[in-house]
Amino acid sequence: MDHKVPYDNSGIWKRSTQNFVFYGTGLAIGGGALWLGDENRLGDTFWRAADAMVMSGITTQTMKWVFQRERPSQTDDPNKFFQGWGAHSFPSNEVGAISAAVTPFIATYGKEQPSVYLLALLPAYDAVARVKTHGHWQSDVLVGAAVGTGMGLWAVHRSSPWTISLLPDGFRLGYSHYFD
C-alpha cells in the first residue's frame, strides 16, 4: 500500500497551500467558537470541532512519539518504524486535525444540509498533498484521517463540549451576542 509517488511541491500541492488550509482551519474553528459562544447550535458545533482538534492533536503526536516512522523524504522504505526522535511520519497530525475539525459539522448538519459533506474535501486534499510532497506515506494520512474522524464523532456524542466543561459556568457569552 505504501509507496513513494512522484514528488510535487507546485501549484495547489505546494507546502504553503497545505499550511494555509491547516492553519486556516484552526483559526476558523477557534474564531468561530469564541465569536459564537456555546448557546446556539452552530457555536456548540464550533466548540465540539475545537475539542476534536485538540484531542486529535494529542493522539497523533503521542502516536508519532511511539511509532517514530521515517517520512518518505527520509527513506524509500515505508517499513522504517522506531527510528528515533527525528522520525515523525506516522500518523499525519495535519490530516487528523482537519478531519477532526470538519467531522462535527458533517455529523451535525449533514442530513439537513447535504452540501456540508463537501467539507470532507479539505482533509482529502491535505492527505493527497502531504503524500505528494513526501511528508507522509499513504497509511500515515489514512490513520490520521481515522483518528481525526473518530475524535470528531467522540466530540459530537458528548453531552457538552469538553473544553466548555472545564469552565465553571460554561462559555455563555459569544462576542457576536453581547458587547458588555
UniProtKB/TrEMBL annotation:
Which residue ranges traverse the bilayer?
A: 20-37
Q: Which domain of life is it from?
A: Bacteria
Q: Which Pfam families match?
A: PAP2
Give UniProt keywords alphabetically. Membrane, Transmembrane, Transmembrane helix
Gene3D superfamilies, from UniProt?
A: Phosphatidic acid phosphatase type 2/haloperoxidase
Keyword Transmembrane helix carried by entry: yes
Q: Which residues form the Phosphatidic acid phosphatase type 2/haloperoxidase domain?
A: 46-156
Write down what this protein is called: Phosphatase PAP2 family protein
Origin species, per record, is: Dyella solisilvae
